[in-house]
Amino acid sequence: MDALDRLYRSLDARPRPEDVAVLVLEALPKLTDAEHRVIGEVATHAQRWHGFSGMSDDYARPVGAARQVAATRVVFGVDGAVDADDPLSVLEFASLVGAEIGWDPDRTDFLSDRLNRDERAAAGIGLSKRQYNRRFRMLRRLSAKADRLDRVIVTRDVTLLAAAGFVDAIDRDRFRADVDAACFIAYYTARRKLRRRFTLLGRDNAFDQVSAALLRRCRLAPGTDWAMIALAHPTEEVLGHLTPQQLGNQIGRWSAATRAAASVLGDLWWENDFEQANMVVRRGHDSSTWNTFARAYNAARAGWISSLHAAGATELLVDAWPGKAMRLMAADLAWWHRDTGGDLHSDTDVWAALPLPWEVLDGTATCTRGDVERACRTFDMDPARSGWSAPPAHGATARFRPTPELVHGVAVADPLWGMALRRAGVYSGKAPVFGGQDAAG
Prior knowledge:
441 residues; mainly alpha; 21 helices; 2 strands
């Protein structure tokens, strides 16, 4: 497997940017001296800190239902083709073999949904109660496994969408066909996937000096696949290179993703008692799922608005302009902010003052771009620069800092050393507010 193949595999994982930089050096042997200096400086950290982190270099991958399918085949004495990694295929298999006992995939409660003796006789099921119960339990476990598998797959897909856009839509041949674009996408998305430092400061800008050098190569190269870059980096510059048809494709992708994530957030909102005014986690809140989908929603919303802006079509949303979704903040982090003299960020105030975004998208509530702009100004925010009423503004190019997993791993393995690093400023900082763009994802 060459460097380009390994870079392609990294799109679906969570490698350190340092390790991706090493592969970039292999994939681009003809760098200029300046480019080699910038990328090589980052690549040197890959070996220097190798093995120190202890953090996973991947997102949790789903475990298929092969074991449950095999056990079901033994119990029912059947074969039949089934894709154990596909929840739908597993459910279809369960329904097929469950026909033997009149099993209904929508009625799987062991206490209330089993057939009694008379019902089994009427259905022509000649099994003993013990054998019937054994089969019912097996199908119930298989159905539950399919549900869990589906949730893990969806969660992983949504997590990748929030961190890397639509890189899953890039096939291997297309990726390999434009080496400069491939290297930029792989490195930039690795930067976006970084875990957050334990700090009062927001995230570093994912677009650092290496990203800038690689994107510069794309600008200078003839025939750059800008549409592929836009799947991961839908900025005004990148989208400006797209044809009307390509822009339309981008708008459709981001619009569908925004609405899908918003729909899930709406369901979670009514299942939990979140407090819109501060969005601090309380006992019983499903904060993990909420924050995963909030990050995806905000990333999709930003891509959608950026694509509409590039196409000159933002007027399509002017009468139904959805706001951002705030992430939930841990109570101890909120206390830390307040203890240092902080207060709610204006982002949270604006969020609380506007209709819920999923209600705007489904037409339940009305919220115009003018409403968003007025709410922002009420809390002394620039609605365009803050990303509420315009494509998000991108900050200055960041300087590279070693991957925070290193510090996180140290803090977990040796709290005293972790505290020393914090006092030294490795992951400390000041901020007068909490929430904000980072809370919004």
